[in-house]
Design goal:
Elements lengths: L8 E4 L12 E5 L4 E2 L4 E7 L3 E5 L4 E6 L9 H4 L8 E5 L11 H9 L5
Antiparallel strand pairs: 1-7, 2-4, 3-6, 4-5, 6-7
Length: 115
């Protein structure tokens, strides 16, 4: 099942190009708070780095993927499917206008940008 934006709801995932299927990762993020766009809501850790997780939009957490604590490897192996983290009810649907698609983000990284 592909999780995506529907009406006023947005799923939060770690982009596939930001993880590796063989990487051992751990994450810690806030699941009970309202989110503010571009503010940190947690971290993702691997053997090589610790990175902040930034909220892409402002809104309220309405669903949490309960399987991730049991199967954190899903973030690596299926980030756009079973590896989603949170679902946020957006305060302003226009917030998504400034977001990149997964394909655009992958191209940016492939071209050496995004650092």
């Amino acid at each position: 099942m592909k999780r995506a934006m529907h009406a006023l709801v947005l799923s939060i995932v770690v982009a596939a190009c930001a993880t590796s299927p063989s990487a051992d990762i751990d994450f810690d993020y806030d699941t009970a708070a309202d989110f503010t766009a571009l503010k940190t809501f947690g971290v993702v850790e691997s053997v090589k780095a610790v990175s902040d997780l930034f909220a892409p939009v402002t809104g309220e957490v309405v669903e949490v993927n309960a399987e991730l604590p049991k199967q954190p490897e899903l973030v690596n192996t299926d980030p756009y499917g079973k590896g989603w983290m949170l679902v946020i009810r957006m305060a302003n649907p226009k917030d998504v206008d400034g977001l990149m698609s997964a394909g655009d983000y992958e191209k940016l990284i492939a071209d050496g940008g995004g650092h």
